[in-house]
Design a protein that fits this description.
This protein is mostly beta strands and 287 residues long. It has three helices and 21 strands. Helix content is 10%, strand content 49%.
Length: 287
């Protein structure tokens, strides 16, 4: 009788053990990645300033997107051993938090990464401007005396280059705008016209610090008329910021054959002097 009871207990124990495994199966142990920021590289003569505002990491493991992570970030990855890892640098399109995308003019970080369960690896992805993918239509860094933007007929602000360490962003010079009284107008226009394909990505990059709403816009010019359009309004900020303004989606609605002249403008809404500082205006167009 005792032998039968022992056998029954052994069988029941085995069944119970297997049932527990079915109800609570063993969980995979993730590896972890930590990313503080991206490091952007490139030749200044070819691409201009290497300042950036990369806010997100788009992470792909073995060709599967596992997530988009706002930096800095530490996150789990259910992978082990050596796997293909791709990290794409992400931006806020037009500076808006709910419109995020991988920036098409930067390269991706690609590596055969050794994932180790329960281990956190810190990565600082090195990336470059993807010069083989785009044309740098213009790059105004205000370092040279021949600035490609001129005051328009509306402008009554003081506009000049500054080399003051407390005012410039980087390099030797930035652009300084002084609007002494209320309702003073700042506006500068590009010297050149640009023919931009309608089916290509195109972005304007800019570093800025401003007391007033700063507008980036363009004239859509045909043989018979010229239409002035605002692309993006940049809110006042006491610190230098960088924005990537999506021009390509805007131009989808412009007639074929039109060319474009770009402008920047603002109006003093204060009761005293307002200041605007600008640097590194770039137009990048996908090939």
């Amino acid at each position: 009788m005792k032998k039968h009871l022992s056998l029954i207990l052994i069988v029941l124990t085995g069944i119970f053990s297997r049932s527990c495994q079915l109800i609570n199966p063993p969980e995979d142990i993730p590896a972890y990645l930590h990313i503080d920021s991206f490091s952007l590289h490139g030749n200044y003569d070819s691409f201009g300033s290497l300042s950036h505002k990369i806010t997100d990491a788009w992470v792909i493991v073995n060709d599967k997107l596992i997530g988009v992570f706002e930096l800095p970030a530490t996150f789990p990855v259910l992978a082990n051993d050596i796997q293909k890892l791709i990290i794409m640098p992400g931006i806020k399109e037009n500076g808006i938090s709910n419109t995020r995308l991988p920036y098409p003019f930067y390269t991706y970080y690609i590596d055969n990464h050794l994932f180790k369960p329960s281990t956190t690896d810190t990565i600082q992805p090195n990336i470059w401007y993807a010069g083989n993918k785009f044309l740098l239509a213009f790059n105004e860094d205000f370092e040279g005396g021949n600035v490609i933007f001129d005051p328009s007929n509306l402008n009554n602000a003081l506009v000049y280059r500054t080399n003051s360490n407390s005012e410039k962003f980087e390099g030797d010079y930035s652009l300084k705008v002084v609007l002494p009284t209320k309702n003073d107008i700042f506006e500068i226009e590009g010297e050149d016209l640009y023919d931009i394909p309608r089916n290509k990505s195109a972005f304007i990059e800019i570093n800025f610090k401003t007391d007033e709403v700063l507008t980036i816009g363009y004239y859509s010019i045909s043989l018979t008329n010229s239409v002035k359009r605002n692309l993006i309004n940049l809110n006042p900020t006491k610190t230098w910021k960088k924005v990537y303004a999506n021009l390509g989606t805007e131009l989808l609605y412009e007639p074929q054959g039109n060319v474009f002249r770009f402008f920047l403008g603002a109006v003093n809404t204060a009761s005293d002097t307002s200041y605007i500082f600008i640097d590194n205006i770039k137009l990048l167009v996908y090939k």
